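Sanity check. The docking grid for fe (ii) ion depends on where the pocket ends up, so I'm generating a full predicted complex first rather than guessing from homology. Inputs follow.
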Amino acid sequence: MCAGSRAGPRSWPGCCDWTRRQGSCLVCAAWLHDIGYAPLLAGRPAFHPVDGARFLRRFGAPAPLYRLVARHSGAAVEAAVRGRSADLAEFPAVAGVICDALTAVDMQTSPNGRPVSVRARVAEILTRYPQGHPVHTAVSRSAPHLAAAVARTTARIHGSDDE
Ligand SMILES: [Fe+2]
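Predicted complex below; grid placement will be based on this.
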């Protein structure tokens, strides 16, 4: 549910005006980005960014929100590894700043919700998924991009962004 929304799912369109409330969409996406892991939502074959985005789109979520979910944390690289780029293409990329911020929060939070460095997060993922697994391959390839998104977001937060 979008931050600040108390009325439930029927309030989606009104709760997330992209021009005024990117922060709310970011919070929503941070909560919902892995919803596609829910067994009832998994497609065949499963690919959680797209499965989650398709569910949210069907549920009436705003396009910026489900596009963020589809594109979170190196999803494009994993889609290429899994041969699912055509499915991901249903969801155009979102502006870099907000997508970087979602990647930053995802890649600096451990599976049990504790703050971690992006280096530790990547190492944990590479340990959890064996070599040869699509996630291991994708995260190995996208790690520099994930770290760069974290660095850009950190710079923006601290006002040292040159963009
Ligand atoms: Fe994810």
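Relevant for the grid: The first helix runs from residue 12 to 15.
Also worth noting: The mean pLDDT is 87.
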